[in-house]
Known about the structure:
By secondary structure, the chain is an alpha+beta fold. It is 31% helix and 21% strand.
Amino acid sequence: MASEQETNRRRLRELLNIPGNGNCADCGAPGPEWASFTLGVFMCHTCSGIHRNIPQISRVKSIFLDPWDTCEVEFMASTGNNAAKAKYEQKVPPFYYCPTKTDCQLLREQWIRARYERNEFIHVERQESYSAGYREGFLWKRGRDNGQFLSRKFILSEREGALKYFNKHDAREPKALMKIQTINATFQPAKISNPHGLQITYLKDNSTRNIFVYHEDGKEMVDWFNAIRAARFHYLQVAYPGAHDVDLVPKLTRNYIKEGYMEKTGPKDAYARGEVFIGSKESGYTVLLGLPPSTQGNHWQFGITIVTPDRKFLFACETEAEQKDWVAVFQGVVNRPMLPQEYAVEARFKHKP
């Protein structure tokens, strides 16, 4: 006759087959091996570590290794991931970034705390810090020349359609004005060497500029990120009045498909552009493996040629594996049709001074 523990473990494994329970409740990773017996949700190993940091809200156990009481299993059976989602995600704003298993630790932690600890998606008034349309505060910004981080005042204003920062606390004029129309934000903890590091990209004089910022408080940094997404969302709602939310959300912020180093070479009359616009093959863009025979000046041997309607751009990778990875990414870009707003970006590139 099976023991109570064996029966409980078997029931838990069976619960994983119920729709919704087969993926982590917080990041969607498949095959959860942990569960919160106070919240009634199944989760992955990484998210279980975050839950352990809020023991007043969530207590976790291994589904397969820890002992389970019958009453705990009954609670898991009566709740589950879908029921918890219905309770804790009643009023998630469409612009709010819901992280996946590939996102950084900070985004996942603040998503979990927002749901279960702060109940932000049950009580709408708790979302004001990122949904009000105006936000100001101080962030640590990396200096362009010396790489040191200095405290700078930032103001985000939907009404002005801009994010601004000031070099001095009492300055009247901003050091930089980043239009909501062109801004992008993505967490880059490794690049910035800070777990809360955010890279903000914007256009100035038709060239891409970057600033790197962080805040010691994780919630503060994620609130800034979602405030930028909220401002972008409301801008796009005005720009595309007939569009559905589901079509606008992917345009709010974007992560980079791939980053790395390549050599850039080309004909002797080549001029530095700093960036290359890559459109679709229907618009005359192609990606070729290798370099033209007459190419000189490259030390790395594994070449890539990007053909645009105006000229060719030549790059070289250190290894064949890197070359294949980059070509696959470029092919994915040229194989998809260009969006209407991408034609406007292409035009800006063509009219650079």
